[in-house]
């Protein structure tokens, strides 16, 4: 019993990759184990926890609910691609560090993806909106209080340094949704 | 010791890596390793008749399938009973793979090794196991009835029974002017870290060495256990703990079946093997906690002062007892909280059921104990018509009674003696923070708007930082960089940051020059593990002691070189200098060069340490008999007994008159963990603990059916709270230093979760006007309680609220 595989091309963090995968290979597993981008984490594999969230054409998606073969033709941004090309951390990454918005760090990449996308649409959220924005991701360590603070702080940082948005984050709109 | 870094709320040194996606968690390691998956029992209780792997053999990518028949020697024996205790009557532990019987759904029956995890899981589905299904035993009541017995050879399901007594509680209760009896119940929840368990093993046949990575809370424990199972010398096994995606207690259990099977298979196959737990596996094959029934009998005087307390606890320990009786032992001792109980009698039964094992989850039995005591306090207040804070205050141990001996034996086998604490100050701070005195007016305003609100409070004392010991190793490199190692592991508590803060102050070096390693037996083989809020207390103290040794040595060597008395030297900014004459001195890196006498120079700096490099004292050998080369220090901290942190929580809730939905309006915490190393981190620990307390009080439970099937084994059905469910937490700190350790600190990791069920039960009860005796409570449960209350089936709390708030004066009837 041998499984059929497919050669796919994925565009991740602005870099083209190829991989040979069976049709059932999850995007999360492909990113982690075929491309070695282990910053994307897998917490439940049924789409509830949000740890595996990446950005697909700018939109946050759960990479455990998508097959790698169906991610072809889309621009994928993972946590490894959030910083600017010169290594300057994304405002959301800075804010989570400043505000102690993470403890074990396992859920963090998913939160970062969600918050980065949210702030592009809502650059000046209220605390309630910030809490709502992260309301689809699970964290077992922080009690969310410092995550909400991080969202507000990230908004502040982004406003202090307009135009500092790294590529991948904003490239979103151009890619569109295929 | 007062320094700049100790006490500073600095951002964590761990985070730059973690926010960039450069963490290394277990499943990030081992590219190219074979993947393991496990055939698990679908039955709660069964006898294995046959295992047929015939269908699996033609799957491309299959490497091996193993069953218990393949195991020999110690591998075929049950896993160890980690913490033996005289109260254990019959301590059963599981096998690495089930031998004849399975005792819970999810128990591993066979191991599949394959090219990747997808294939391994395909094969798991093709392994056919014939079972003779036996009766399930689910819940404390069924375990007590013992119509069916979980383990063959036992006449009932009582794994352990322990009685502790101080004074004659039944007599004190019989003689008391007032008595009460409460039946209480608390359900299961679980640690549920975002990352499950995982093991990755590499066998080096040429060196006959095993390197193991595990997502564990104890590197040294896994090392010793795996060495024993695989019949290896300890020196042949290295255990490295990578970044761990949360633990909360579940990962202190070791060795798991998977944790011995993976290295065993790696050695047998001569190939790396990895197993990463998936979410369903974590629900059915890791560990749970909390489930207990309790019966409290209490006698008290007119002011609510405890005269006698008699508590019976029935604790569900699940299918096996690998962690001994720690959880019910903690419940039965920490139940006393900040109070003098009068005479105390407590007896627990720890019971086998055909469900997942029960081992410590953050709080480790304390939430149940606090639930029992605080429900009792509220019941006393209701009975006497007294303010609830007032009843607590007459029972509090006073600061001048410290150290206070409760007369019991604690979970570390040592006396339960509180070292320090100021409970009256904590209560006063809490009442201020939550606005206790103003609440009746707030309640009236809400009532006028058709809203129903209630307030509750709950107090706890928590033994933290138990021994036996932890170690610290601190070394200054010739570059001046400082390497720190301790053996216990980190799961997000920020140990790298706080240990660096401690060493920075002890040594006088910038924190940016310090790197910290935890949980790596190559760097610090002597260790116990991370549990019982002991990281900062134990390893913090150990690295401080080690740094002090190093500092003494650095000053001695620099004193020789600078021809100065070491007492006249100080270390500032990584440089040893003469006090009052900062220009004359040398970098710590240079001291490190001089600390290691050399024959061979390897760079410019090292020339100074070679044998022709400078003046020497020919009457002394290059390394004195009582000295050792290198600028490093190692020391161990072993406490006399636990240090006792404490805290009090208050919550205001609103219950919807129609839907019975429960919303937390405010959640206030007064917390005393001694001296704070990093307030930012301590507050983060409290936030996370409170979230788990709220989760266990209002949302999470393990829904077993009577056949022992866990019905909600996914994040779809197990209601782990999102940001929308967890309240903002208001915190006030007290800092009562511990006299027991060199830094005056107490543990903080578990505290936030401990009074969660108690405080929310109290607040809901206050809003509703009838007793809440069972947690967690869901809206539908509250709705049904309201119906039973309305029909007269549940009696009201006796009207206890005076018209005017007056918590501090002596008791008044309303």
TrEMBL record, chain A:
Gene3D superfamilies membership: 3.10.20.30, [2Fe-2S]-binding domain (1.10.150.120)
Low complexity bias spans: 166-178
UniProt keyword Phosphoprotein present: no
Residue ranges constituting the 2Fe-2S ferredoxin-type domain according to the UniProt record: 6-82
Annotated protein name in UniProt: 4-hydroxybenzoyl-CoA reductase subunit gamma
SUPFAM superfamilies according to UniProt: 2Fe-2S ferredoxin-like, CO dehydrogenase ISP C-domain like
Species annotation: Marinitenerispora sediminis
Region (Disordered): 159-178
Keywords assigned by UniProt, alphabetized: 2Fe-2S, Iron, Iron-sulfur, Metal-binding, Oxidoreductase
Pathway(s) it belongs to: Alkaloid degradation; nicotine degradation
UniProtKB/TrEMBL annotation, chain B:
Lineage summary: Bacteria, Bacillati, Actinomycetota, Actinomycetes, Streptosporangiales
Organism encoding this protein: Marinitenerispora sediminis
GO molecular function: iron ion binding; oxidoreductase activity
Xref: InterPro entries: Ald_Oxase/Xan_DH_a/b, Ald_Oxase/Xan_DH_a/b_sf, Ald_Oxase/xanthine_DH-like, AldOxase/xan_DH_MoCoBD1, AldOxase/xan_DH_MoCoBD2, AldOxase/xan_DH_Mopterin-bd_sf
Keyword Oxidoreductase listed: yes
Name by which UniProt lists this protein: Xanthine dehydrogenase
Protein origin, superkingdom: Bacteria
Transmembrane segments: none
Pfam families: Ald_Xan_dh_C (PF01315), MoCoBD_1 (PF02738), MoCoBD_2 (PF20256)
Domain Aldehyde oxidase/xanthine dehydrogenase a/b hammerhead: 20-135
């Amino acid at each position: 019993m041998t499984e059929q595989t497919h050669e796919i091309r994925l565009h991740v963090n602005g870099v083209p990759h190829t991989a040979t995968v069976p049709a059932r290979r999850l995007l999360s597993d492909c990113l982690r184990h075929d491309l070695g981008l282990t910053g994307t984490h897998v917490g439940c594999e049924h789409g509830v926890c949000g740890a595996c969230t990446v950005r697909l054409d700018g939109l946050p998606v759960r990479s455990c609910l998508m097959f790698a073969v169906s991610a072809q033709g889309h621009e994928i941004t993972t946590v490894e691609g959030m910083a600017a090309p010169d290594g300057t951390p994304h405002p959301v990454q800075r804010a989570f560090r400043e505000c102690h918005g993470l403890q074990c760090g396992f859920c963090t990449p998913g939160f970062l993806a969600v918050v980065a996308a949210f702030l592009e649409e809502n650059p000046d959220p209220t605390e309630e909106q910030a809490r709502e924005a992260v309301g689809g991701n699970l964290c077992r360590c922080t009690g969310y209080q410092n995550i909400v603070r991080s969202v507000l702080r990230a908004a502040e940082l982004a406003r202090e340094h307009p135009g500092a948005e790294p590529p991948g984050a904003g490239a979103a709109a151009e890619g569109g949704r295929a | 010791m007062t320094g700049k870094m100790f006490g500073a709320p600095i951002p964590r040194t761990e985070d730059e890596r973690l926010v960039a996606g450069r963490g290394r968690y277990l499943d990030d390691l081992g590219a190219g390793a074979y993947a393991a998956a496990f055939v698990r029992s679908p039955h709660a209780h069964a006898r294995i008749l046959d295992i047929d792997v015939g269908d699996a053999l033609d799957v491309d990518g299959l490497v091996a399938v193993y069953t218990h028949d393949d195991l020999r020697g110690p591998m075929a024996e049950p896993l160890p009973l980690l913490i033996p205790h005289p109260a254990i009557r019959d301590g059963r532990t599981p096998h690495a793979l089930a031998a004849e019987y399975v005792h819970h759904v999810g128990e591993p029956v066979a191991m599949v090794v394959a090219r990747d995890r997808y294939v391994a899981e395909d094969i798991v589905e093709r392994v056919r196991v014939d079972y003779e299904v036996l009766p399930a035993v689910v819940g404390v009541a069924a375990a007590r009835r013992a119509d069916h017995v979980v383990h063959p050879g036992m006449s009932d399901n009582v794994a352990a029974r322990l009685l502790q007594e101080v004074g004659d509680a039944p007599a004190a209760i019989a003689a008391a002017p007032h008595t009460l009896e409460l039946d209480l119940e608390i359900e299961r929840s679980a640690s549920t870290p975002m990352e499950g368990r995982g093991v990755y093993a590499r066998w080096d046949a040429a060196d006959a060495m095993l390197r193991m990575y595990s997502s564990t809370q104890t590197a040294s424990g896994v090392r010793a256990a795996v060495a024993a199972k695989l019949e290896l010398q300890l020196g042949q096994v290295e255990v490295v703990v990578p970044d761990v995606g949360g633990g909360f207690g579940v990962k202190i259990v070791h060795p798991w079946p998977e944790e011995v099977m993976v290295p065993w298979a790696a050695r047998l196959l001569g190939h790396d093997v990895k197993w990463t737990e998936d979410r369903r596996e974590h629900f059915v094959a890791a560990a749970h906690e909390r489930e207990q029934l309790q019966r409290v009998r209490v006698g008290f005087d007119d002011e609510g002062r405890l005269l006698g307390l008699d508590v019976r606890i029935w604790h569900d320990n699940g299918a096996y007892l690998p962690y001994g009786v720690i959880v019910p032992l903690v419940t039965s001792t920490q139940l006393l909280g900040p109070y003098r109980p009068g005479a105390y009698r407590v007896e627990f039964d720890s019971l086998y059921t055909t469900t997942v094992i029960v081992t410590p989850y953050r709080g480790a039995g304390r939430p149940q104990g606090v639930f029992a005591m605080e429900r009792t306090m509220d019941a006393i207040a209701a009975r006497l018509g007294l303010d609830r804070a007032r009843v607590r205050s007459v029972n509090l141990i006073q600061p001048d009674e410290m150290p206070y001996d409760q007369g019991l034996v604690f979970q570390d086998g040592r006396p339960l003696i509180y070292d320090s604490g100021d409970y009256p100050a904590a209560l006063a701070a809490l009442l201020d923070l939550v606005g206790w005195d103003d609440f009746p007016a707030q309640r009236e305003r809400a009532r006028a708007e058709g809203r129903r609100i209630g307030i509750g409070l709950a107090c706890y004392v928590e033994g933290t930082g138990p021994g036996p010991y932890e170690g610290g190793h601190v070394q200054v490199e010739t570059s001046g960089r400082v390497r720190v190692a301790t053996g216990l592991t980190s799961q997000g508590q920020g140990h790298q940051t706080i240990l660096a803060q401690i060493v920075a102050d002890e040594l006088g070096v910038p924190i940016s020059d310090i790197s910290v390693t935890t949980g790596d037996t190559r760097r610090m083989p002597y260790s116990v593990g991370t549990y019982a809020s002991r990281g900062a207390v134990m390893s913090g103290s150990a690295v401080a002691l080690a740094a002090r040794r190093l500092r003494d040595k650095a000053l001695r060597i620099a004193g020789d070189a600078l021809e100065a008395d070491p007492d006249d030297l100080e270390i500032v900014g990584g440089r040893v200098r003469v006090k009052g004459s900062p220009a004359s001195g040398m970098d710590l890196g240079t001291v490190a060069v001089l600390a290691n006498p050399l024959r061979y120079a390897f760079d410019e700096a090292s020339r100074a340490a070679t044998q022709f490099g400078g003046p020497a004292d020919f009457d002394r050998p290059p390394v004195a008999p009582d000295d050792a080369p290198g600028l490093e220090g190692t020391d161990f901290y072993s406490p006399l007994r636990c240090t006792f942190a404490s805290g009090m929580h208050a919550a205001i809730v609103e219950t919807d008159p129609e839907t019975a939905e429960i919303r937390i309006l405010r959640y206030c915490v007064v917390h005393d963990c001694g001296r704070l190393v990093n307030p930012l981190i301590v507050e983060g620990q409290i936030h996370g603990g409170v979230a788990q307390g709220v989760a266990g009080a209002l949302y999470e439970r393990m829904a077993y059916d009577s056949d022992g099937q866990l019905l909600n084994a996914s994040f779809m059905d197990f209601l782990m709270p999102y940001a929308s469910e967890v309240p903002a937490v208001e915190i006030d700190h007290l800092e009562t230093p511990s006299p027991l350790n060199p830094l005056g600190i107490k543990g903080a990791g578990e505290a936030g979760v401990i009074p969660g069920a108690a405080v929310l039960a109290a607040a809901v009860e206050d809003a509703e006007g009838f007793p809440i005796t069972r947690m967690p409570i869901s809206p539908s449960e509250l709705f049904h309680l309201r119906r039973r209350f309305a029909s007269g089936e549940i009696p009201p709390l006796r009207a206890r609220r005076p018209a005017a708030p007056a918590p501090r004066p002596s008791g008044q009837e309303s």
